[in-house]
Design brief:
Layout (H helix, E strand, L loop, with lengths): L2 H15 L5 H14 L6 E2 L1 H4 L6 H8 L7 E2 H22 L1
Antiparallel strand pairs: 1-2
Helix pairs in contact: 1-5, 2-5, 4-5
Length: 95
């Protein structure tokens, strides 16, 4: 992740601490994860993530919380929300 992306991600984390994800969104992210996790191992790879995000590197950096190369369900759900925030903040700062 580049320096600017890290800064934006930190701002996003700060913003998300102050908000709460709805139960509906959590269900939506869980269903999406379960569709992507075709092997039903409870984890997916960055390669799997390419089909649902345009910024795979940033998504992986946010989602791979223990940096073992895998995205687990909780990291997936959190990163989906964080990625939305990062994109929103980018619009504010970069445009």
């Amino acid at each position: 992740m580049h320096g600017e992306d890290k800064r934006l991600a930190n701002v996003a984390i700060t913003l998300k601490i102050q908000t709460q994800v709805s139960a509906e969104k959590i269900r939506e992210y869980t269903e999406l994860f379960n569709r992507i996790d075709k092997q039903k191992h409870g984890k997916i790879t960055a390669e799997d993530a390419k089909g649902f995000t345009t910024d795979t590197d940033l998504f992986m950096d946010l989602a791979d919380t223990n940096k073992d190369g895998w995205i687990y369900k909780n990291g997936f759900k959190i990163s989906r929300e964080l990625l939305k925030s990062v994109k929103f903040i980018r619009k504010i700062y970069l445009y």
